[in-house]
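Per your request, structure below.
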């Protein structure tokens, strides 16, 4: 069950007596929790039938006592146990989960880590309620998520703009959603979001970003590469070297994969690279012409070398900006 499917069931008032939300991705858990907080009960019903408990401050006896109460002037009550991962005797809720009160919706919010599904507690919830595991997205899944997020709000986004946001903000979905929401406040519904919108409303330069640096490296455009690296070096807080190394390592790893898939179709190559479409395949094909197999291997070796240097291994007092310049120079030459 996806978070959208779970919310769809809630909208239809298909309520389970108990829900467990757990996993490493906070965003989906927050969205579901917010919906239950705001939509399951009316404002009038919340006065006597809405309770929030916190794992660090409560125990299973208190949770069970609250959950066993009957609602007042409403069909059900809502009890939310937040920060459940901090509750020492959480698994003792197995006794309640084995026979939950049908007029209570008990939501257990277990963020930042996965709950062991082998416990009797988890098995009891699975039998009598709903378990939702919120997983982190992989890098190559984020562009699709951005596109879907905007589509739900009746916007579209160009592939370049989508990749710009994904490359700059990484896999932090809460941060991405927050930045996109701020952008949408400033553009009419139905707008097709392009890199100019991203630069103007999110502050990601459409000319000086990792995506443009990768393209310039792939084309062997030394002047543009130096211009972008100098910009990064002058703004190290916005462009830290670990983030740059990670992005370039991912890029050259894909270029390396391309070396072994020279005679396949664009769609097959996109699948091998983990790309959502063949839109960016042309960029990697161009990079293959600039970086043959030995040069690609050398680029990856340089990135590993400077990853260690950025962490203090065999590094003198060289500033971070100068390390960036050295690293990119060695990749190019």
């Amino acid at each position: 069950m996806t978070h959208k499917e779970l919310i769809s069931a809630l909208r239809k008032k298909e309520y389970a007596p108990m829900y467990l939300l757990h996993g490493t991705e906070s965003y989906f858990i927050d969205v579901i929790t917010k919906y239950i907080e705001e939509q399951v009960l009316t404002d009038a019903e919340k006065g006597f039938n809405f309770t929030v408990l916190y794992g660090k401050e409560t125990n299973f006896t208190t949770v069970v006592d609250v959950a066993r109460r009957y609602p007042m002037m409403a069909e059900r009550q809502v009890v939310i146990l937040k920060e459940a991962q901090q509750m020492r005797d959480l698994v003792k809720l197995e006794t309640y989960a084995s026979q939950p009160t049908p007029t209570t919706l008990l939501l257990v919010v277990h963020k930042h880590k996965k709950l062991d599904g082998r416990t009797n507690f988890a098995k009891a919830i699975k039998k009598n309620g709903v378990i939702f595991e919120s997983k982190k997205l992989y890098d190559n899944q984020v562009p699709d998520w951005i596109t879907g997020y905007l589509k739900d709000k009746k916007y579209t986004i160009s592939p370049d703009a989508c990749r710009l946001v994904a490359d700059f903000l990484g896999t932090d979905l809460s941060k991405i959603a927050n930045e996109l929401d701020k952008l949408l406040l400033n553009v009419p519904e139905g707008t097709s979001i392009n890199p100019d919108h991203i630069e103007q409303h999110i502050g990601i330069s459409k000319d000086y970003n990792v995506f443009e640096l990768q393209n310039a490296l792939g084309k062997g455009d030394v002047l543009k590469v130096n211009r972008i690296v100098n910009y990064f070096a002058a703004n190290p807080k916005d462009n830290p070297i670990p983030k740059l190394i990670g992005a370039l390592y991912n890029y050259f790893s894909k270029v390396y994969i391309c070396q072994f898939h020279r005679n396949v179709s664009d769609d097959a190559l996109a699948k091998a690279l983990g790309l959502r479409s063949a839109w960016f395949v042309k960029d990697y094909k161009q990079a293959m012409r600039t970086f043959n197999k030995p040069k690609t291997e050398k680029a990856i070796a340089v990135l590993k070398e400077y990853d260690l240097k950025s962490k203090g291994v065999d590094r003198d007092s060289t500033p971070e900006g100068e390390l960036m310049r050295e690293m990119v120079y060695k990749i190019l030459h």
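Residues 3-134 form a domain with the Rossmann fold fold (CATH 3.40.50.300).

Regards,
D.
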